[in-house]
Each structure stands twice: as structure tokens, then as C-alpha cells.
Design a protein that fits this description.
The protein is mostly helical. It has nine helices and no strands. It has two domains: 67 residues, Orthogonal Bundle (434 Repressor (Amino-terminal Domain)); 116 residues, no CATH class.
Length: 200
């Protein structure tokens, strides 16, 4: 196989996965923070994306890197947006299911427990935010990732406050820490977006 044939295989597979997800070249470019001209060049076989970019494409489409390099078989259909949303919701839902089971079982087994068992639902906020953050980072959605970082930091701060305010009345100062955390998170996501913009 020569270089031209190799480029054609990768080009055809990128176009196939993009069309399977119902995305235009411009929409895919926006998801990856690339120009639509770069996507067009890849799909015409005029250039090849770098290995890191191919890895990002594979993660975004929910396929393996090998699927971009394979000829002679029908490529795997990537996960649709609806499927990704469903997977994310079900995964976060498991956290809430576990919290509910803990709450119910604790109240059934030890109803007079000297602990505010309802706090398990507050603890579920940062835990489910972590799950959703992982999926949004995996699938390259910066806006949702920032929203889940915010939910994580607020949920974690609230969990700490509600767990300790009886013992430390001035623990409410912990909420002040949210301001620099949110500013740092915002700059980090802006930096990630700027860094991904290609020179092609």
C-alpha cells in the first residue's frame, strides 16, 4: 500500500464516521476546534491528521484508532449524540441509585442513626459530576465540561459545608474558595480551546 492509498483509506473513514453522526464538515470542525478547511483536506486525502488528532477523532466518534486505518470491511458505526447522552445519564443515574439505596437501607436497618443520612444525596452531586465530566472530556464537549467542573466544585464545597458546619460555624468561608476555582477553570478551558486551534 502506497501513501496515496493510505491517505484515501483514512479520508474515506473520517468522512464515513462524520456522516454517520449527521455532522457537516463545519460542525465536526467546531467540535474539534479545527477549521473546516482542515477537515476538507483530510476527507479529500490531501493531508493526514496527526496521530494525536486521529486519536481525538476516534474518541469523539467512539471508535478505535484502528478503525480509521482499516480497509476491506465496513467501519463500525460511531455512537450518536443521543446514545452518548443516554450513556452519560445512565452512568450518573447509577450514582443516584446507590445514594438512594444507602438512604433507604440505613433508615430501615438503623432508623435512629446519629448522622444526617440525607447527606448522601448531597454527596451524590460531586460524584455524578465527576462521571459526567469524564464523559464530556472523552467526547470533547468543552462547554459541558466546564458546566460539570462547576457542578463538581459547588457540590464538593456544599458537601464539606453541610458535613462540618455544626462543628465549625465559620466553615461558610469555604464558599469564597469557589471564586478562584471557577476563574481558574474558565481560563483552563479557554486555554484548551486556543491550544487546539490548528495552524493548517
Amino acid at each position: 500500500m502506497n501513501e496515496t492509498e493510505f491517505k484515501r483509506i483514512v479520508a474515506d473513514n473520517i468522512a464515513f464516521y462524520r456522516k454517520q453522526m449527521g455532522l457537516t464538515q463545519l460542525q465536526l470542525a467546531e467540535k474539534l476546534n479545527y477549521s473546516d478547511k482542515a477537515i476538507s483536506k483530510w476527507e479529500r486525502g490531501e493531508s493526514l491528521p496527526e496521530v494525536y488528532v486521529l486519536h481525538s477523532l476516534a474518541s469523539f466518534f467512539g471508535v478505535t484508532l484502528n478503525d480509521f486505518l482499516t480497509v476491506g470491511r465496513k467501519p463500525r458505526t460511531p455512537l450518536t449524540i443521543k446514545t452518548r447522552i443516554l450513556i452519560s445519564i445512565l452512568s450518573a443515574g447509577i450514582v443516584w441509585l446507590v445514594a438512594t439505596v444507602i438512604f433507604v437501607l440505613t433508615n430501615l436497618i438503623e432508623p435512629n442513626i446519629d448522622f444526617d443520612i440525607w447527606l448522601v444525596f448531597i454527596y451524590a452531586i460531586p460524584l455524578s459530576s465527576i462521571v459526567l465530566l469524564v464523559f464530556s472530556l472523552l467526547w470533547g464537549n468543552n462547554r459541558l465540561s466546564f458546566a460539570f467542573v462547576t457542578a463538581l466544585s459547588v457540590g464538593l464545597t456544599l458537601s464539606i459545608y453541610l458535613s462540618l458546619f455544626k462543628f465549625y460555624p465559620h466553615i461558610w468561608y469555604i464558599f469564597i474558595a469557589l471564586v478562584p476555582i471557577e476563574i481558574l477553570a474558565l481560563f483552563w478551558f479557554i486555554f484548551r480551546k486556543i491550544r487546539k486551534v490548528p495552524t493548517e
